[in-house]
Design goal:
Blueprint lengths: L3 E4 L6 E4 L9 H14 L1 E4 L6 H9 L22 E4 L31 E8 L7 E5 H6 L3 H7 L3 E4 L15 H8 L3 E4 L1 E3 L6 E3 L5 E4 L4 H15 L5 E4 L6 E5 L3 E5 L10 E7 L6 E2 L4
Parallel strand pairs: 2-3
Antiparallel strand pairs: 1-2, 3-13, 4-15, 5-13, 5-15, 6-12, 6-14, 7-8, 7-11, 8-16, 9-10
Bound molecules: 2-oxoglutaric acid.
């Protein structure tokens, strides 16, 4: 098989064209997909009208899947491998817990000692317009820093906190953030992360980090905000405009992403994500 790829943006991403991810696929054919995943940071597969089981099965090709023990409130009731990102109300009519999931720059499971290798998000229901997701190339972000800045951040660790959210969103679910934090104590992750497969260095930060280990929030925040702003400049970013039955797989080791609230929230947006386990990274710290 020879993959038909179409670049999605200058910074990152490629669409894999004319493919059915649920069809039988040899190791060699999947090897081509995996190589494209490493080369482009994210891959888009359009028109994948597949079942949940097929979504899970294809995801397993990338590695062992997380059962989402660290985010139990958002799991699919019948498939622990699937995490819901939905604004569909609960059966009792209460708002969904996960309606604001991902509304800040982050890399999945950075707040755990085994951050994710990659995630595969499938769109089941999308609003008429909007509900987009931004992805940033963190290798490019690192490479374009000055030598002085690279030296300054080389040994820093950012403390990643579970359950953080931007203050402009209403709280979701009673005790949701508290539960997430209880299950996931703060983890310090290297600010410069070496990709275990490509060997390339990437920035590893996002908006779940409020301070560096060994420094105060006041000392840390200006640099964290500078680095996040640098990493998310338009030239380092791809904007995914979802259609129903898209699957996007992203490499959490060298990209970060953010779900946007750029849509009419009275319309339904329902996404489901599998999360591929990564390799151990970071260390536990006391307090945030
Ligand atoms: O819903 C989205 O577009 C992204 C959700 C997200 O950030 C995540 O699953 O980590």
């Amino acid at each position: 098989m020879s993959l038909k790829l179409r670049k999605l943006s200058y910074a990152l991403g490629a669409e894999v064209c004319d493919i059915d991810v649920a069809a039988p696929m040899s190791e060699v054919a999947f090897g081509e997909i995996y190589k494209a995943f490493l080369d482009h940071g994210i891959l888009l597969f359009r028109d994948q009208d597949i079942t949940r089981e097929q979504h899970i099965e294809f995801s397993r090709r990338f590695g062992e899947l997380d059962k989402h023990e660290s985010l139990p409130q958002d799991r699919h009731p019948d498939h622990p491998e699937l995490l819901l990102v939905t604004n569909e109300p609960n059966a009792d009519g209460t708002p969904s817990n996960s309606r604001y999931t991902g509304r800040q720059w982050h890399s999945d499971m950075s707040f755990t000692p085994i951050p994710s290798l990659g995630s595969l998000l499938k769109s089941w229901t999308v609003p008429e317009v909007g509900g987009d997701t931004l992805f940033a190339n963190m290798t490019m972000a690192y490479d374009t820093l000055s030598g002085g800045m690279k030296k300054l951040i080389a040994d820093l660790h950012g403390i990643q906190l579970a359950g953080t959210r931007k203050i402009n969103y209403a709280p979701t679910g009673v005790g949701r953030a508290e539960e997430q934090r209880k299950l996931n104590p703060p983890i310090a992750q290297p600010v410069v992360r070496v990709h275990p497969e490509t060997g390339k260095k990437a920035l590893y930060l996002g908006e779940k980090v409020k301070r560096f280990d060994g420094m105060t929030e006041a000392e840390s925040l200006p640099l964290i905000q500078y680095l996040n702003a640098h990493a998310t400049k338009p030239e380092f970013v791809y904007r995914q405009q979802w259609r129903k039955n898209d699957i996007v797989v992203w490499d959490n080791r060298c990209t970060m992403h953010q779900a946007l609230g750029d849509f009419d929230e009275t319309q339904r947006r329902h996404m489901e994500r599998t999360t591929v386990l990564g390799t151990p990274s970071g260390y536990a710290v006391m307090g945030g």
